[in-house]
Amino acid sequence: MTLKQKISILALKILHSTIRRPKKIKIYNKTFILLPGVFSPRGTLTSTFLAKNLGVREGDYVLDLGTGCGIQAIFAAEKAKKVIATDINIRAVQCAKINAKINNVADKIEVRHGNLFEPVKGEKFDLIIFSPPYIPGKPKNYFEYAWFCGEKYEVIKEFFKEVKRYLKPNGRVRMIYSNISDINLLFNILKKNKLKWYVVTYMKTIMEKILILEIRM
What we know:
By secondary structure, the protein is α/β, with parallel strands linked by helices.
């Protein structure tokens, strides 16, 4: 594990240790309730940057895989016909349902519990939103699945091994990633699975370069 990865983990643990009771936060023009044990989009740049660059089209059938508090699903629902939001963390599922109601999009968002594509077997989507955990390491609990992707990047590898089965013919993936992780490894995974990609936009901070990618078959 690199020094930057260790610093990121420490910062995430400190940030989330302060959330001991339900907390109201504001992201752009929307209000969210954040429950303890759910990844916070406040204080982390990736969630808010992706929310601004989802690339949703009118009428899209969308999957928000690893929804957390529901931030991407709720912003996607502004244009999408329907959003399926999933998470391995049952607390996140509860949190996303609350936030869909608060933001008056509960009729357009269905939240399901499960790992990766398990909750959407047999379904296909116009757009899959993926804000993956990208720090190598083994999660000790469901909460840590928000940042640890397995010691050998198993979560990311499994996602791209399976994703073609869940995309419509012209479907696409909108994904965020950081050079705190191994970007070359990500590109090699995409090549191995014969996927095409381009960088939609990026931002630089003192610590990292954050990329938003669009990926297609």
